[in-house]
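Example A, followed by Example B.
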Amino acid sequence: MLRDTRLIFVRDMKLALRSPTWLLIGIMQPLLYLFLFGPLMVSVVDHTPGFPPGGAWEVLTPALIVQTALFSGSFAGVGLLTEYRVGVVDRFRGTPASRAALLFGKVLAQAVQATAQSLLIVLVTLLVFDLDASPGGLLLSLVIAAVLAITLSSGSYALALVLKSEAAFPALMNAVLLPLLLLSGVLLPVSEQLAPGWLYHLARINPLTHVVDAERAAFRGDMSATELLTGSLLLMVMAALALLWGTQTFRKENA
C-alpha cells in the first residue's frame, strides 16, 4: 500500500506542477484579503473588544491559512470527477493497486499543495507587513493546515464519487462552505463581545470555528491554550472519520 500511495502521490504532484497557475490562483483570494482587508483590521483590533490576542496580522494570517486549506481541499473532488468522466477511474479499477492507496496518495498531494500555498501567504505577510510569529508556532500552524486539507479532500473525494455529477458537486460545496466560512470567524472573530448570542452559539457548533481558534493559538505560539487542544483533537477526529468514509467509498467504487 505504501508503494501504491507513493505512485499516486507522485502522479498527482506531477499533474499539479505541470500547471502551477492553479496553485497561484488558489492564493489570489487570500492575498486580496491581506492587502485590501488587512489594513482595515490594524486600527480595529486594538480598539475593539473580542479579538484574540496579537496584532491584526497575527489574527488574520492564520485564518487565511485555514481558508486556503478549506477551499483547496473541499474542491479536490472536481478533479476526480474529471478523471471519472474521461475514464481514468475505470482504468484504475483494472490495476492491482490498493484501493486505500488511491485515496491516500491523492489526499497527501492535496496536503502538500495546501501547505505550499499557506507558506506563500506567510512569506508575503512577513515580507510586506508587520507579522510577528514564532517559528515553532508557524510550523504547527502549517501542520494543522495540512491535516485540514487531508480531512476536507478525503470528504470531497468521497462526496464526488457518491454524486458523480460535475454540475451538482460545485454547487453543493458552495452552499455548504459559505455558511461554514462565515460562522468560523475567519474575517471577524465570532466572539461573545462582537456577536449576538444566537450567532455566537451557532458559531460554536461549527467545527471549523474551533480549527480557526487552534490555528490562531498555534500561530502566536500559545501552546498551552485551551483552543489549541480543543481544535486539534476535533480536527484529528474529523480527519479519521473523513479518511474512513473516503477509503470505504474508494473501495466500493473501485471494486
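Example B, a separate protein, is given below in the same form.
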Amino acid sequence: MTAVSTHTILITGASSGIGLATARYFVQRGWQVVATMRTPHKAPADLLTLANVLVLPLDVLDVASIEAAVAAALHAFGHLDVLFNNAGYALAGAFEALSPAQVQQQFNTNVYGVMNVTRAVLPHFRARRQGLILTTTSVGGHIAFPLYSVYNATKFAVEGFMEGLQYEVKQFNIQVRTIVPGTVRTDFTAAIEYVPAPAYDPYAQRVHDQTLASYAQAATPESVARVVFAAATRGGTSARVLAGSQPKLVYLLRWLLPHRVFASLLNRTNGGQ
C-alpha cells in the first residue's frame, strides 16, 4: 500500500457507530486510516474499498492481536500519529443482578482493553517523540446514571487513567485527550447488555425503556466524528473534549445545582419517581 498522506490514525471499534463514522471522516480529509475490529469480514463494504484504509482484526482483550495489528499498520503506513481508543460496550441493570463474570467482562473490555491497546502503541509514539491518544469515554464517566453503575465505573476509571497518563508521556511530546459524548444515535443500543432484575421492577424496566427512547433524539455519530477530527488537528491543551450540547448541558446543571436537586432531576428524567 502506497502512503499518500503524512497523517495516520488507528481506530478500535471501527465496524460501526462512532468508530466507523470517524474512519470515513478522516479518510475524506486525506488521512490514512487503520480501521480495526474483532470481525473484519463484517466491515461495511465501503470501508473495505476506500483508498488509504487498512482494515485489520483487533480484539482489545487479545494482546497478540493488538501487537499484530500495530505491526501491520506500521508496515503499511510507516508510522502512526493518532490512536483512537473507541471499542467498548455497556452493561446495564441493577448492580445486585449483575454477575461477577459480567462485571469482570465489562472492565476487561472498557478499561483493560483501552490499557492494552495504549500500551502497544506507546513505544512507537515514544520513539518518534510525538503522538496523540484519544479515547471515547462518556458523560457517564463524570456523572453516574441509574442502572449503569458498572458501566459508569469503567468510564470513571478510564478518565482517571488517561488523566494520570498525560503527565507521564508529556516528556515525549505525546498528548492525551478523552472524547466525552452524551447519548449517540448508533447501534450502540443494540450492544447494551441489559440484565433484568425482577426485585427492582418496575423501576428498572421503566428507566431502561426511557434510556433507550432518549437515543431517538441523540447526537449522530458523524457529529462526534467531527469533534474527534478537531481534537486531532487543532492542537490545544484540553484534556477532555465534550462532544455535543448534551454533555455540556449536563455538566452545567451538575455544577450549578445542589446535589439533591440535580439527583432529583436526573431520577425524574430517567423514569424514576
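On Example B: The beta strands are 8-11, 32-37, 53-57, 82-85, 91-92, 131-136, 174-181, 193-194, 240-243.
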